[in-house]
Structure formats: structure tokens, C-alpha cells
Amino acid sequence: MKKVNWGIVSTGRIAALFCQDLAFSQQSHLYAVAARQQADADQFAKEYGADVAYQGYQALFDDANVDIVYIATPHNFHFQQAYDALMAGKHVLCEKPMTVSVEECQQLCELAQQKGLLLMEALWTYFLPAMKQAKKWLDDGRIGQLKHVKVDFGYPIAFTPNGREYNPELAGGCLLDMGIYPLAIADYFLTQDIDNLYVQAQVCETGVEDDVIMLGKSEQVAVSLAASFQCRLSNNAYLIGDKGYIVIPDAFRASECHLYHLDDLVDSFSDNRHSLGYHFEADEACKLVTQGSVQSNVVSHHHSLLFQSQLAKVKALI
């Protein structure tokens, strides 16, 4: 099996978690990492076993040995870095949200198609076995007709005006940072876009939202979503039908799901994995690179554009 050489853009927490899981991806090889400071790149390469460490991202993009770039910088840097990587002939796996506007997302999708390169949003949740099992139960009619979808994601994050989460110049706010998860998880199980949106948000002193509730409908399905920097929410997903319901604990990183009929637990699934779960999306990216595909049918360009459209609608109502 030919290994796919990864180049990592950023040495932050998410990049570290992703690289930790690359060890579970048989087709992946951690080849290079780039950071703004050489010392940071060197330390990251030493810790996670990358062959090469670069100061500056363009040097990584220009390395002929890099097959695919993983971008894990703050949201507002995604567009330019993904653009530069594609222009350098690299496939791209970009953290969510892939951009901060519909227009930027559309431009990247068009560029990837023109270049014949893979562009995929790193929505790792879609590739987790527990999510797939919950979808199978739903599609098999195990809970009857879907009536409600409820998803939330929140953790208390201390207010720091210049921190990534709260700084508007770094595309701060809980909607882009955490709200993308409830929206995307809901869309995974729905057949139509969410409309009739109602949004209730709290805005902190830097002008970004630190708590947001989103209500809407998808055809006849009621949708209730939330994200927060203020508190730890349940972080579960609930799919509620007229014959039963499915619970996905910690849905953003799901490792299990449970099926109920009224108050009775009738089925359960656990993937018993030893990884965090990021390697499932890495496996998908490697497969697509090998096949020469420009997009995934699991997280397609259409999905990424839909997420951007939804985020824009919610922002307009805050």
C-alpha cells in the first residue's frame, strides 16, 4: 500500500490530536509540519514523528513530497492557506468551518475542481462508526418517522478578549467554533435544509456570541440546536421518532449510540476504539487522494456550502 504523505499546517491542539491519530491510519505518513516559528515546528515534529519541520507554510506547500495538507489554524486563516495549498498542487483537508463565508467556500470548491485536487472539510464526526450506526437505525425505520432532532455542544471557556475564541478578528464566537457541530450533525440525519430559523444568542463584550440557541424545521421535523462557551451542555444528539428514539452521547466525538422504545433500551452500539477517532477521516482522505477524487461523497462540496449558508443565516439573526 502506497503511503500518503501528510503536511500539517499549525502546531496547535487540534493539529496535535489529529497527528496522534494518524498512527491508526495505515495509509498515512506524517511527513511534514509547518509553523510560524521554527522552534514550534521542530518541537512538534520531534513529538509526533514528522520527517520535516518548516518555518512558514509556503515552504511546506512547495515541498514536492507532500501529498495532502491538513489545515488546523484559526477559522479566518483557512481560506488563504487552503487557496495557497491548492495553487501549489496539494490536496487539502481543512478544519471546520472550512471558511467564514459562502463566497470563500465556493471559490475554494471551484479551484479544487479546476486543479483536479481533493478539497474536503474535516468533519470527522461524519466518519465515526457510531454515527453511521445511528443513521442505519434511522434509515431502517427502527424509531419510526423522525419527529425531532436535538443536538448541542458547549464547554465553558474562560473569557480572554484576545484569545482565539473571543476575538472577532480571529473569527471568534461559539457559532463557528462549536455551533458547526450541532448544525452538521443535524444535517447528517435530515433530508432537507433547516428553515424557519429562530435564534436566541448572548453576545459578550468583544461583540461575538458566547451562547446561541437555534430552532427550526426540516420538512415536518422539529430541530433544536445549541452551542455555548458559557457552560457544558449535554453534548448529546437525540433522534426522536414516533416509535422510539436514539441517543448519541458526546455526539461530536461519538463512540456509542443507544436505541430506545419508550423507556426500554432495545439496542446499543459501541465501537470500542483505542483512538480518538480522527483517523477515520484521514483514511477517507487517503482513499480519495489515491482514487484521484476532488471531493468526498460523505462530506462533499455541497455539504460545505450548505454549512456556510446555514452559518450565515444564523449570524444574520444574532
UniProtKB/TrEMBL annotation:
Matching InterPro entries: Gfo/Idh/MocA-like_OxRdtase_N, Gfo/Idh/MocA_domain, GFO_IDH_MocA-like_dom, NAD(P)-bd_dom_sf
Organism of this sequence: Shewanella ulleungensis
Record-stated family: Belongs to the Gfo/Idh/MocA family.
Residues covered by the Gfo/Idh/MocA-like oxidoreductase N-terminal domain: 5-121
Pfam families to which the protein is assigned, alphabetical: GFO_IDH_MocA, GFO_IDH_MocA_C3
Organism superkingdom: Bacteria
Protein name (database record): Dehydrogenase
Keyword entries, A-Z: Oxidoreductase, Signal
